[in-house]
Amino acid sequence: HSRAGWMGFAAAAAFLVAVQMPRRRSGILAAAGVVAAGLVAVALAFNVQHNPSEDYTRVAIWKAAEQIIDRFPLTGVGPFDFSRLYAVVHVPDADATAFHAHSLYLTFFAELGILGLSAFLWNVWSFGVTVGRRVRKAPPASRLLALAAAAGLAGVAVQGLIDTMSVVIFGLWMPTMGFALAAASRDWEQP
After folding, report:
1. Within 10 Å of residue 122's Cβ, how many Cβ atoms?
2. Distance between CA 107 and CA 85 in Å, rounded?
3. N or C: which end of the chain has fewer CB within 10 A?
4. Are 15 and 151 in contact (CB under 8 A)?
């Protein structure tokens, strides 16, 4: 069971609840309630089955990512080359191999540097601004479809804080952004 996955789900649900509420304050309060429920569920249900050694493994990998970032801050080590340098910089008692930094953002920073991370964050910001502008004019069904796709991306972004889902990032991130933008810009309802 992935605690990060469940928190991503809670974030996606909170996002969808918040943007669907007619009043902004009510949406924020409802979203906070969803996130709080997610935190309680993770604390009560998933820590029972959680292997504490996974925490050390993750922290050791994060420290190695910091070492890589420190050495290559501007451009990173290159896409998918985290594992190559991890073998050189990891602490002695850490896992011998790691294919990513167990954090979407640390992985991007280590592999792409500040330039690549900035480009990624600009892309996400531009998407948010554009989809926000489009959903204001979209009919209800199109609006909901676009916001549901955006909520999924928000969930992945939260899960990405402490986990990396390569298949989702490289196979589904951009198509889902495109789907959300297309859904928000067309009238899918029948006349």
Report:
1. 10
2. 12
3. C
4. yes
In which residue are the tokens 């820590």 written?
47
Neighbours of 185 (CB within 10 A): 16
Query: Which amino acid, residue 67?
Result: Q
Please write the tens of the pLDDT for every residue from 39-93: 676 666 655 555 555 667 888 899 999 999 999 999 999 988 999 999 889 888 7
Q: Which of 10, 115, 130 lies closest to 69, judged by CA? A: 115
- Distance (Å, whole) CA 101 – CA 105: 8
CB-CB contact of 132 with 170 (8 Å): no
Tokens 């050390």: give the residue. Answer: 56
Q: What is the pLDDT of residues 92-121, one digit of tens each?
A: 877 888 888 888 899 999 999 999 999 999
Angle at 79 between CA 75 and CA 120, to 5 degrees: 65
